[in-house]
Design a protein that fits this description.
Helices cover 35% and strands 25% of the residues. With 292 residues, the chain is of the alpha/beta class. Helix 4 runs antiparallel to helix 8, helix 5 crosses helix 9 (254-266) and helix 8 (224-238) packs across helix 9 (254-266).
Length: 292
């Protein structure tokens, strides 16, 4: 980063287990990056300011503003930023930013309500989606995958699938994971799992096919994790429901984008991978321009 380049905005994506920070110029280009493993889940509210200063303080010498998305704004985080209800536009997020400290504002998450009941929520993914598209369906795969419908620049629908967390729990704490071993990606096992997940609506019964396939010798211990992964992702796609039809924009790590893209193709759906860093930095920059 050139010392002559002015930092217009410091963008922070503060997740549960880590944070990523970006120095942006006035056009939204990334001038610098920092990452830290002090995620929101491990911090008491009085610790956030010190961690932020430690990570990005050197970028704020000239008073650059900071815009924070993600779990720093959750209940029990730094300062709670109440959810904005769907349909939600970028301007709606901008109108509900919460000041956490001088020059530091937190982005609210987005929620879906139905008949007065809270049905679904997200924090952080909404910024990625606003940075990636204005219309269509986005999927942010991860521990909790988010399916998001954008219509005319507004988030109009969302749905969460606990696919990543369920995989981790089953792998570590169930009979299915006892004999699993690590190995290279097995596309045939993954595809077989996807097909089972797409075609069997009874997920709790379909999961036991991991065990029976191993006992029958049809599934090697090193291939079992990929079969389980495919089964869960296939089931997620099959259960997405109405409102999420059409091509999908995948906003996730390359390995996850690859798996979801492969699974979507087997379901007859097109997908486009999107770099999550590009999505979140563009979303933060667009939000900052909206409120500047």
């Amino acid at each position: 980063m050139s010392e002559w380049t002015a930092i217009a905005l410091v963008g922070v994506d503060w997740g549960t287990t880590n944070l990523r920070a970006f120095a942006l110029d006035g056009e939204g280009a990334v001038l610098g990056r920092r990452a830290d493993n002090r995620g929101a889940a491990g911090l008491s509210p009085d610790r956030f300011a010190a961690v932020l200063d430690d990570v990005v303080g050197h970028w704020r010498a000239d008073g650059a503003p900071v815009l924070v998305c993600g779990m720093a704004g959750a209940r029990g985080g730094w300062v709670e930023a109440p959810y904005v209800e769907t349909p939600a536009a970028l301007a709606d997020l901008g109108a509900h930013l919460i000041e956490a400290a001088s020059g530091v504002r937190i982005v609210p998450g987005v929620c879906k309500r139905q008949d007065g009941r809270l049905m679904d929520v997200m924090r952080g993914e909404e910024v990625q989606v606003f940075g990636a598209l204005t219309d269509g369906v986005a999927v942010c795969p991860g521990t909790h995958s988010k399916w998001v419908r954008m219509t005319g620049g507004r988030i109009t629908d969302l749905r969460t699938a606990m696919t990543g967390e369920l995989f981790a729990v089953l792998r570590a704490h169930s009979i299915l994971g006892r004999s699993m071993t690590e190995g290279p990606f097995d596309p045939e096992a993954f595809d077989a799992g996807v097909d089972r997940g797409l075609g069997d609506p009874a997920l709790t019964a379909a999961l036991f096919s991991v065990r029976t396939a191993e006992l029958d010798g049809r599934l090697a211990p090193g291939a079992a994790p990929d079969y389980l992964s495919g089964l869960l992702i296939g089931s997620e796609i099959a259960g997405a429901g109405g409102g999420f039809e059409g091509p999908v924009h995948l906003i996730g790590a390359p390995a996850l984008n690859h798996r979801y893209g492969r699974a979507l193709a087997r379901a007859g759906r097109a997908s486009t991978p999107i770099d999550p860093e590009a999505a979140v930095t563009r979303g933060l920059w667009r939000l900052w321009k909206e409120t500047a």
